[in-house]
Amino acid sequence: DAKTTQPPSMDCAEGRAANLPCNHSTISGNEYVYWYRQIHSQGPQYIIHGLKNNETNEMASLIITEDRKSSTLILPHATLRDTAVYYCIVRGSESTGNQFYFGTGTSLTVIP
Amino acid sequence: NAGVMQNPRHLVRRRGQEARLRCSPVKGHSHVYWYRQLPEEGLKFMVYLQKENIIDESGMPKERFSAEFPKEGPSILRIQQVVRGDSAAYFCASSRAGGYQPQHFGDGTRLSIL
User: Fold this and answer.
1) pLDDT tens, residue by residue, B49-98
2) Helix (H) or strand (E) holding A10
3) Considering CB atoms only, which of A2, A43, A100 is closest to B108?
4) What digits encode the pLDDT tens for the residues B7-24?
5) Which residues make Cβ contacts (< 8 Å) with residue A75, sequence separation at least 6?
6) How far apart are CA B99 and CA B114, in angstroms?
7) Cβ–Cβ of A102/B105 closer than 8 Å?
8) Which of A30, B67, B69, B95 is found 20 to 30 A from B53 (Cα to Cα)?
């Protein structure tokens, strides 16, 4: 039900950009892409979401391909505190449900 | 995770007892969602509520589980006659509205069944 595919794990050197990919080839026109992360023993933390335009906030940037079948979350300068499981989620209108489907995500390890 | 308050953070119950989990949404949010996370797994949706109404309970087990979001006070997830398999982390999220609004999560209640 997750409708997204992410690599199970990634490493990133501290201070470098972390680029986390997500495939959502079956995304429909009214579905947004959301990114959350979960640090051990905490609740999921909202990062960013978008429909078709690239988005940027104080935490990250979201790059969505023109055909919307994939996206990349970019953490511009990864720190050790960014080590977490990152979830890419697609969710649409009321007719497709109100819940988020959390898959297994990408476990990002930031290396000193 | 500032804003969504869940209590207790940890709850221990013996088999057959009742568990009550509380969730106070972000101020101004009228939509509440409950999720369950088993060890080493992702979050699974349970129920979506607005004030005094259950909107979607498609993820709730058919027996022993119930949820409410009264006009006043926190949302409550109630588990009757708990069993070992109910041991999990239960997360509450809230949003300002439904649709495309992002959900903001609390830090969860860790339920352990002895």
Assistant:
1) 998 899 989 999 999 999 999 999 999 999 999 999 999 999 999 998 76
2) strand A9-13
3) A43
4) 999 999 999 999 999 999
5) A12, A17, A18, A20, A59, A60, A82
6) 39
7) no
8) A30
User: How many other CB atoms are found less than 10 A from the CB of residue A69?
Assistant: 13
pLDDT-derived band of residue A86, with 50, 70 and 90 as boundaries?
A: very high
Residue B47 identity (one-letter amino acid): V
CB contact under 8 A, B99 and A103: no
3-state SS class at A60:
coil
- Report whether B37 contacts B91 (CB < 8 A): yes
Chain A CA closest to residue B40: A104
The closest alpha carbon to B36, from B79, B84, B92, belongs to: B92
* Average pLDDT value for residue range B96-108: 87
**Do residue B35 and residue A102 have CB atoms under 8 angstroms apart?**
yes
